[in-house]
Write a structure and sequence with these properties.
about 140 residues; alpha+beta; GMP Synthetase, Chain A, domain 3; three-stranded mixed sheet; 4 helices; about 15% strand
């Protein structure tokens, strides 16, 4: 029996905002879509739209898994969540996101922070994501 798990790797902690940051940060603008992004930041958003959920043909952006993208001085930082904390595709998704962001022209380094605040819910799925899920055969 073989597994895809590397048991020699130390687990990475999730990034939780501290309470002061949570108190001042608004999540009213979720789902984040990069609608007003420009330049390199827009290119990073476009690259993230190309990544699909491993179980459904829906963009991770349209699923509402991306909370923020920022690019400063050639460093792209992406905040994302998962549909649930025990997601078996966690490692793969984080690697795919980091690689996609790093491949954008103008990005020298990419970092992905996994957050669970706020927790993901079906309300975070965009209208396009809802249409894609319905086309896949899910009622939403």
């Amino acid at each position: 029996m073989s597994t895809d798990f590397d048991l020699d790797i130390e687990p990475e902690p999730c990034r939780y905002p501290d309470y002061e940051e949570r108190a001042t940060r608004s999540f009213d603008d979720l789902p984040a879509t990069g609608e007003h992004a420009e330049g390199v930041e827009r290119a990073v958003w476009d690259a993230l739209y190309e990544i699909q959920d491993p179980e459904m043909p829906v963009s991770i952006v349209d699923l509402g898994l991306i909370y923020d993208v920022a690019v400063e001085d050639g460093e792209a930082t992406v905040e994302m969540t998962l549909t649930y904390t025990g997601c078996p595709a966690r490692k793969m998704l984080l690697a795919d996101l980091e690689a996609a962001a790093a491949d954008v022209e103008g990005v020298e380094e990419a970092t992905v922070h996994l957050v669970f605040t706020p927790e993901w819910s079906i309300d975070m799925v965009t209208e396009q994501g809802r249409a894609d899920l319905r086309e896949f055969g899910l009622s939403i």
